[in-house]
Amino acid sequence: MSRIKTCVSLYSLQDEYLNKRMSLDDIVRYVKDLGAEGIEILPDQMLKGSPEISRETEEHFHALMKETGVTPVIADVFLNTNLYKNRSLTKQECIDLLIKEIIQANRLGIHMIRLVSMVPYWVIEPLLPYCEKYDVTIAIEVHAGMAFDIPETKAFIDECKRVNSPYVGIVVDTGIFCRKLPRVVRRYEGAMGTSEGIFDYIDGLFEQGTDLYQAKKKNGGQYPAELVAEMKTEHDQMSTPLLDGYENYPVEALDEYLPYIRHFHFKMWEMTPEGPEYSIDFKEILQYLHDHDYDGYVSTEYEGNRFVLPGAPMVEKEQVAANQKYIQDCLREIQG
Fold first, then answer.
1. What are 106-135's pLDDT values in tens digits?
2. Which pLDDT value is given to residue 83?
3. Taking CA 322 as the corner, what is the angle to CA 326 and CA 114, rounded to the nearest 5 degrees?
4. Alpha-carbon distance 75 to 80, whole Å?
5. Beta bridge partners of 112
């Protein structure tokens, strides 16, 4: 029997936080009022001193969780290998940074870390003893444009299978299940000057059950001639590479990876007035997870905020609320 739980990534409300319309406390209370069970936090954005926070920050975080009853589910971690101008971090420096993140997660009562896409596989084995000691799972994000067939992603998952530990896994980002190019992306990029024929070509790919990423891959890593013919301006040359990060996998692509999936990002760009997200069928995904007895969280992750047109209002709160309502309604129908 599935036990699908709802969560909100605080990434979804980053403009509210950045522009000081909402504090971390405000955001967590807002998420609680939406009926979500958990939060996904970005410590380096919202916790001063991360990954070596003060005792005061730690105690305040615990008090906030106790007050709201919200579960701190997962921390989003970015391995910044470019801290220095003249060199990349060494392997040991990378591992040492991630150890700090694991210890911090433990201090906060968080039992999972999302490693951003492309974190190298070789961090797994040296981190495992710390994961076990501090009871923190590490899981790499499988993100659109960097999904299962990317060598770096595949290497991490292969190592995950090899070590076969409950403390290592993957986070699936539902941007790999786009059924349409997000409408807000077309509207925004079009307003910036991208030629309409480019969008029409990409929309046609989705109608055929594929996407720009796959079309490029099948053409030896080059854009198909039909798309190149639509690239009229220098701006088109710059904007088109931003449009192949919306993939169209069948949900059954998860079959092979189910034993290793620890968490889901329910990526969304536009909840429609009619109810569903414009480009992703969340109900299909939830039904699949229910049928496969998934026991874990699905986390609202709103990214439409980066495609708000100049002068238009920011609608992060409204979009997060609409997504949570839709997910919860679907779960009531699916799980009873």
1. 999 999 999 999 999 999 999 999 999 999
2. 84
3. 80
4. 15
5. 137
Q: State whether residue 178 is helix, strand or coil.
A: strand
Residue 180 and residue 206 in contact, taking contact as beta carbons nearer than 8 Å:
yes
Give the dihedral sign, CA 182/186/189/194.
positive
Q: Euclidean distance between the first and final Cα of the chain, in Å?
A: 11
- pLDDT mean across residues, the chain: 96
* Residue 72 burial (10 A CB sphere; 0-12, 13-18, 19+): buried
HEC sequence for 51-92: CCCCHHHHHHHHHHHHHHCCEEEEEEECCCCCCCCCCCCCHH
Q: Measure the CA–CA gap between 286 and 292, rounded to whole angstroms.
A: 10
- Euclidean distance between CA atoms 17 and 8, whole angstroms: 14
pTM: 0.95
According to DSSP, the residues that pair with 72 across neighbouring strands are: 39
The contacts of residue 32 (CB under 8 Å, 6+ apart) are: 68, 69, 70
- CA 182, 187, 188, 194 torsion-angle sign: positive
Which residues on adjacent β-strands are paired with residue 141?
Answer: 171
- Residue 51: is the preceding peptide bond cis (ω within 30°)? yes
Residues 6+ apart with CB under 8 A from 200: 230
The residue whose two tokens read 């659109």 is 144
Please give the Cα distance from 15 to 278 (Å, whole number): 22
